[in-house]
Model the fold of this input.
Amino acid sequence: MELTTNIPVRKNPYSKLNEVDFDHLEFGKYVSDHMLVCDYGNGAWKTAQIVPYANLSLSPTTLGLHYGQTVFEGMKAFRMKDGRINIFRIDRHYDRFVKSLHRMCMAVPPREIFIEGLMQLIELDKAWVPSKSGEALYIRPFVYASEAKFGVKISDEYRFIIFGGPVPSLYSNPIKVKVETHYARAAKGGTGFAKCGGNYGGAYYPTLLAKNEGYDQVLWTDARENKFIEESGMMNAMFVIGNKLVTPPLSDSILDGVTRNSLLTLAVDMGFETDERPVSIDELEQAFKNKTITEAFGAGTAAVVAPIQTININGGDYNLPAYSIESLHNKLKDQLELIRTGQVADVHEWNCIVG
Ligand SMILES: *Cc1c(COP(=O)(O)O)cnc(C)c1O
Done:
């Protein structure tokens, strides 16, 4: 893609690249040398800049710290087999960012600054994109209310930042999840579809309780009746029931995952039937009893897929059959990896190749 904006760059004279142990990457540990920063005030976005990654200085009255006007995205750049760098589904991430920001009454960074700024940033820090299978540069764009004024109000000032850092392949052993029927993550009419900070803070306590009982994550249910499955932790929930890929339909309490959408599309490409429909707890329990459920997994950018081994429903543990490389979630994950690394045709035009 040709860039039309040229964002001023202040180069980091002290690269930390040689401090990274690329053989032992840890999620969230390393951040690359530069970040993009752009401020909003007096009704307009100012000039974006790419600057050395550094701490921020904030007034204690900064509105975003108090009333939760913070929105983020999570996306990845991959090193392709030919060495070029690919930012995956940048447009779809931007569109979701816009929806989240609107819901939180926040200023929306222009598309060119998001897309071209990100491309320029990744081009500059491309040596930070790891190259082993499944590894990536995780990218974190976010906006927070930066106006320094106490008192509850919609902020008139915002700061938009993008930074990134190398992360390992997160292949995990199949996880144990607990169907949560007391606490809720997101309600009808609420902010569950938005990637806003408060949704995550609010999920910690019920997740901690589940962890104390020996589960890795909660499987959220709807806030009204606690009968229908919504999401699995910070991932969309997917099941293979009766040989169909089944996932709850999008709503204002379910986040529209880019991974969810990609996997549904790839399943159709592979000739697999998909079904976006409500999945009740009763149906899940019945499917275990009838042995019609063969897979359950979470889908999200960080882990791509997180296979589920055990689901606790109303106090009883149900186990999924053992998985193999022939399991649908493994085939989908492999196909996605082949597209992202340029080893098969990118027929859906998901890749955005940087220099
Ligand atoms: C980010 C997120 C997902 C996954 O979305 P992706 O675009 O696939 O990364 C799912 N659920 C929640 C609550 C999330 O925050």
Observations:
- Helices lie at 63-67, 90-103, 111-124, 197-212, 258-269, 281-290, 328-340.
- Residues 197-212 form the longest helix (16 residues).
- The two ends are 8 Å apart (CA to CA).
